Every structure is written in structure tokens, then in C-alpha cells.
Amino acid sequence: TMASEAEKTFQRFAVLGDSSSSGAEINNKNFSKLCQDCGITDGKTVTSADVDTVFNKVKAKDAGTITFQQFTEAMKELGQKRFKEKSPDQGLEDIYKLMEGKNPATTGGFYQTATVGAVDWHTDTSKYTGSHKEHLNDSGKGKGIITGFKETTDNSGYGRDHKGAGT
């Protein structure tokens, strides 16, 4: 079933960098990575902040991890954001489709983050490789549509407000 495929993906991410994990529960960091690597987080309708919020909402009060059951609840909620026009169940199916057969991406130094300290792995642009980098400025926030606007401003040396323009 879709769910059992998704559960396999869940387990692969759950044990990532956590040798004590049985794969039955996933921590916040790996949950975020799963959402990132499977394309559930798209930076627009679903951001890493949304992912954190949902994780904290579904987990037990003092727990640092969530079960697959709780994960399903979280994904229903994220599915509602990501696939706005669909029913919760349909959104969940679509998220499971995204998850199917996915493995944690090992590029970008994810395994070193334990020693990096306070830098969060998904806002540290040095962890991004290749095409992801284009979309980020140094703070890790998306640049959006103003990418590269500096180059196009005005090469004449006179900006619009420049006092000496035309003199």
C-alpha cells in the first residue's frame, strides 16, 4: 500500500544519524529533512517553519520524536497546505506519492551537522550544493523574484535619484 511505502521512507529517515533509533519514531531534524528531501517542503506553501510547527503540534508533550501514526497526522495537515484544493485524505495520498522510494540525500554535509553546533542545517547555505544555492542569499532566506536585481539596476553610473544625472 501507499502507506507501507511511505512508512519505509519514514524509517529510512528516522534512523538517519541516530544509531539508537529503531526507525519507529523520527526526531524533528530528520522529520524536517524528510520533508525537504521528498519535496513536501516547497518553500512557498509549506516552509520549514510550517514543518516545525506541525511536528510540535502532533508530538506528545515531552517527546522529542513522533511515531508514524503521528507523522500521518502531520502529513495530513501539511498536505492541506501543499495541495490546497484536495481533501485531507487525497492530500495525504499525494504526500505519500512524493515519499515513495525516497532515500535521505547524503549530499550537503547532513552527517556533519551534529558537530556544526548552532547552525540549523536547512538555513546554512554552505550545506546546499548546486542549484539550491541560486535561490538563497547568505542568511538562507529565499531571494524570490528579485534575484540578481543588482546587475540590472543601471550601468550608466547614474541611478534614477543621482543628483548628477544628465549634467
Automatic annotation (TrEMBL):
Domain named EF-hand: residues: 46-81
Segments for region (Disordered): 129-167
Biological-process GO terms, alphabetical: microtubule bundle formation; microtubule polymerization; positive regulation of protein polymerization
Keywords, A to Z, come to: Cytoplasm
Q: Which Gene Ontology cellular component terms are annotated?
A: cytoplasm; microtubule
Question: Compositional bias (Basic and acidic residues) spans?
Answer: 129-141
Cytoplasm keyword on record: yes
What Gene Ontology molecular function terms does this protein carry? calcium ion binding; tubulin binding
List where in the cell it is found.
Cytoplasm
Instruction: Indicate where this protein is primarily found.
Output: cytoplasm
Q: Which family does it belong to?
A: Belongs to the TPPP family.
Record-given protein name: EF-hand domain-containing protein
Q: What is the lineage of its organism?
A: Eukaryota, Metazoa, Chordata, Craniata, Vertebrata
Gene of this entry: LOC100943937
